Amino acid sequence: MSRKTEDGAIGIFDSGIGGLTVMREIMRILPQENLIYLGDTARVPYGIRSRETVQRYAVENATFLLSQNIKLIVVACNTVSAVGIDAIREITDVPVIGVLKPGARAAVKNTVKKRVGVIGTEATIQSSAYQKEIKSLKNDIDVLTKACPLFVPLVEEGWLEGDIVEAIISTYLSELKESGIDTLVLGCTHYPLLKKSIQRVMGNEVRLIDSAVETARAVRELLHEKGLISSSDKQGYRAFYVTDSPDRFRNIGERFLGCQIQEIKKIQIPYRIN
Amino acid sequence: MSRKTEDGAIGIFDSGIGGLTVMREIMRILPQENLIYLGDTARVPYGIRSRETVQRYAVENATFLLSQNIKLIVVACNTVSAVGIDAIREITDVPVIGVLKPGARAAVKNTVKKRVGVIGTEATIQSSAYQKEIKSLKNDIDVLTKACPLFVPLVEEGWLEGDIVEAIISTYLSELKESGIDTLVLGCTHYPLLKKSIQRVMGNEVRLIDSAVETARAVRELLHEKGLISSSDKQGYRAFYVTDSPDRFRNIGERFLGCQIQEIKKIQIPYRIN
């Protein structure tokens, strides 16, 4: 069981590398915090899997993080944030923050036309979690959604710009574009890397919401509120764990994180606590 | 332990649904055989994972099949055929057939210019398994390879034809096209569904090798050779197991198999034998 004190680390997990966009923002605004990142690269992607399987994976990942000294879990994966957070809360009283609520809140604040678009993986969109969250904040907002299954492989392949990329984006987003939304939630941690191309397809009048920024702010608020913020004046440590070979994680991950990754440890999940 | 008698079933596994193209061909030429298919849909895709992880998954899948009454294992996955077959042979003396050797043999038979192209997932191409196999059959054949990571998500999304699909295929295959090959091995069980578009991009002078057909023939030969062919005059049973929700498997799988899938059972891997 973790100790939940201010010197504990923030545990962050994602199905793979996408969550590094969230870690990057947390590093930026909370540099003194210790961070432990787990990427379940042996079972990525989660977005095509059933709710039940995603929940099982979420609990298994959280169990590993809880075996470390952590004070907070950040679910840096939209799919797990949409369907798996309650399952984690059942096994721990360490606070859990997902990327979904902060993104939804920012969308509600931004929309003037009261028409919001949400894009994400199949699992995230099918869960209707963004719709429910936005509606619960403001009932009269129309929420239009679209699953974009090819975006994750595109980003992982490093295809971020160019004619083919924009043609693929157009195929998925043309209906959303014509629907008159003024706000589009990038409901998958991979999508910020396609931001430039998505903005070009959608036009400048549509504001893109990147939930990584919003989630990092929510983390800072919660730590303050619970008296768990680190009082250290040094930069915190950063530890990286993956469930498959570190090589691919490093190559693609540094693009996501925006800086070099030192050591990456490989572990097996389900994790066996000694 | 399986009994290895003629009334045993043929156990087939793949990381997901791609192997159904192989099952389809086995059903066609060996209709009387009992077939058990396992798709490890909770951990698909394998093509982006490390050799070590693919080997572990291969052994875990084979262990499940061996808990049934099977007389032969067909590895209907190029990635596992490239890196995982030896690991399976270490745990059993039931014969194991992969899709790689039959495809390589057909390519060697077909090429006149002695220039063969091979396309597949990252893991398959990085393993150089096709190159080694083709060279071991005929030393003076040039083998040119290319990993095409976006092809699997394209097929799973049902994008099989059209301008965008051909533009993506061209991006990957233009160098191979200009290299003067006369034979192209589709080194991934998903790729036969893109055959039409790949043929259009490559032109009619290039022969595409679909290893599903070749593998089914190799299975028939081996069963004859070992005296394991079924003497039944009725159609064999077909059983389907998956590790994630059957819904997605059924929707996409019927397109691969070319017929309806009745019951699909969900199991958990690693499988615990009672």
Task: Write up this protein.
Two copies of one chain form a homodimer. Chain A has 274 residues and is α/β, with parallel strands linked by helices. Chain A folds into two domains: 9-98 and 213-266, Rossmann fold; 101-211, Rossmann fold (3-Layer(aba) Sandwich), CATH 3.40.50. Chain A has helices at residues 20-29, 51-66, 78-83, 85-89, 100-110, 122-127, 129-137, 151-156, 163-178, 195-202, 211-225, 246-257, and strands at 9-14, 35-39, 70-75, 96-98, 115-120, 142-147, 183-186, 207-210, 238-242, 264-266. The mean pLDDT of chain A is 93. Chains A and B meet through helix 8 and helix 9 of A and helix 8 and helix 9 of B.
Observed structural traits:
homodimer, 274 residues, alpha/beta, Rossmann fold, 6-stranded parallel beta sheet, 4-stranded parallel beta sheet, 12 helices, 44% helix, 18% strand, globular
Task: Quickly describe the structure.
Two copies of one chain form a homodimer. With 274 residues, chain A is of the alpha/beta class.
* Largest beta-sheet characterization of chain A: 6 strands, parallel
User: What portion of the residues of chain A fall into strands of 2 or more residues?
Assistant: 15-25%
Q: Helical percent range of chain A?
A: 40-55%
Chain pair forming the biggest interface: A-B, 27 and 27 residues
Compute the separation of the termini of chain A in Å. 13 Å
